[in-house]
Amino acid sequence: xxxxxxxxxxxxxxxxxxxxxxxxxxxxxxxxxxVERLAKYVENGELDTQFIRVESEHSAMAACIxxxxxxxxxxxxxxxxxxxxxxxxxxxxxxxxxxxxxxxVNRAIGPGWSIWSDCNDSxxxxxxxWLQFYCSSNQEVFDTLVQAYRIGEHxxxxxxxxxxxxxxxxxxxxxxxxxxxxxxxxDFLPAFKPGxxxxxxxxxxxGNIIGPDYYMEVRYDMHQAQQRAKDIITEVGSxxxxxxxxxxxxxxxxxxxxxxxxxAMGALGAEAHRAVDELRDNGTAAxxxxxxxxxxxxxxxxxxIADHAEMVVIDRDISLGMAGVLATEMQAALDAEIHPFIxxxxxxxxxxxxxxxxxxxAEQGKEGWYTVEVQ
Amino acid sequence: xxxxxxxxxEYILQGNxxxxxxxxxxxxxxxxxxxxxxxxxxxxxxxxxxxxxxxxKTSFGVPTMNIAFEAxxxxxxxxxxxxxxxxRDDITVLAxxxxxxxxxxxxxxxxxxxERGTDFLYVCYNNQMYSNTGIQxxxxxxxxxWTTTTWKGKKEQQKNLAEIAMAHEIPYVATASIAYPEDLYxxxxxAKETRGPKYMEILCPCPPGWRFDMSKTVTMxxxxxxxxxxxLYEYExxxxxxxxxxxxxxxxxxxxxxxxxxxxxxxRFRNLTDSDVDKIKExxxxxxxxxxxxxxxxx
Lengths: 375, 299
Known about the structure:
The complex is a heterodimer.
Chain A: E1 2-6, H1 7-17, E2 22-24, H2 32-43, E3 50-52, H3 57-69, E4 74-78, H4 80-95, E5 101-106, H5 120-123, E6 131-134, H6 138-152, E7 161-166, E8 174-178, H7 182-188, E9 205-206, H8 212-240, E10 250-253, E11 260-264, H9 267-281, E12 286-291, E13 293-295, H10 299-306, E14 310-315, H11 325-333, E15 338-342, H12 352-363, E16 368-369
Chain B: H1 23-35, E1 39-43, H2 47-51, E2 64-66, H3 72-85, E3 92-98, H4 99-104, H5 107-115, E4 121-126, H6 161-166, E5 172-177, H7 181-193, E6 198-203, H8 207-210, H9 217-226, E7 233-236, E8 239-242, H10 246-250, H11 259-264, H12 274-298
Parallel strand pairs in B: 1-2, 1-3, 3-4, 4-6, 5-6
Antiparallel strand pairs in B: 5-7, 7-8
């Protein structure tokens, strides 16, 4: 069924169709609509779930951890400062191997208060052990959320999944989305069967004090699970392929014969799509590699492109005192010719024309903060 | 119910990592005897997390989830919601936290869980300080007490978390002391049988923290009640009642032992002046008067 709705409405619908047992969530702009819709689904009887209207994001994640540890499928959603408040519990969820699925609507961090799109919120959670997806359309938000459960709950992964999309640019923008029948989602998503849970007939103590003789192995296993997730993301994408799109780890467009490829995430990637077409029309061999999965880091997929093309990396985030996070990681992980740019912080508009301009600047050997240092 | 009639089942196992004379294991042992096997526990950062002992071993015989310092009540909310989702109304969800994790850092999550009507039992085992990190002042530390962050004695009175819990108008609030295990057992059973949020606070005198001999734990817990420093009471369905011997003390039918008897046995109060002791007595009298009035109003 084709519907037209905002990414927030679509996220709520996808969460509903994934049939979580427990939802714990707290409102924050620009995510609030998700919480409102889910509350209505529950109160209307359209969604049979325990909805905990928590008093903070920290408690939202703690409650998801408690429910997940008890064997329940969970969902939550947040943004910006809410995500930052959760930070401790993000680590906890990952270390406890609870596959919580969460939407984060990317929003800048204050002060001053900014409600606009910016990826520094989720980039600051890079090392928590969560899988991180970045969506570029409302359709992708739907598809990715449903896939996220099957990926995170896979016995070879068992890690929480963060599905990110841009505040307002997607969260409050209506787009057409193809929504499958509930039966198709039910068939796609197996029941959640964790390896351990809090069970009075098989009592375990989870998370007690762990000495140096075991801790590294715990971390190593999480790292291996992240690495394994690359194949599982692809596998799950293919399984979903008949219903929606698979997208993969890196969504490529006109890359094969490109001289230089634009690398971006989220809605910037969608805008870059148009920029590539325009550049191609002007006779420039441009391509696009939209990084959809940031954790695990898609090193192999990006290297395959870097082998034959230079890369213009546009970060909507900044690791202060260093550089854009995506560009820094690519420089560390790849053998590549990289032209890094910072653009669009705090929701500053980046149109396809801006991206074409960034491409030109890169061709001239320039790099840096677009419109602040270079324009 | 006499002590000898308590169930034989043990859910706190031998070889646990508590200090000699630790009141926490005494309290939790009694509580779990009342709650029984079908109990799931959340434990925040606290001495109890240490008492569980090192992975891959445990001294807790019921399923236990450790959670971050401020998150015991929120984690328990998640467990409770999951039990509801699974149709398991036979399970007791217990959040077991110290006073630091309850009075201070965990207060918001506790208040949220109480206000939401979470069907769980929250127990604050109160040893009046941050004991796990080595004796620092908490919101529950009494006036005048030495800690490693109040070297000259705490300058403020403790707050009253049971009173804050009551302000949520939850079905059951109770205080207990490990020196009165029958009372603790009975109250825990009542909490188990009551639906909705329940809050209990157990006074747990800590030998290294309060600076008394490890053989005197129960004595200290009893003296706290006999001097009227710690009151045993229950608040159920909006009515407040005292339990013996606090009932007789507050109602003037029995003289409280002099507070000095309790203070003198603790190294943490060694530097109290006479005027400090007067101040403590005055605060105590005010507390009794407040509870007497409250019992009249809510009796």
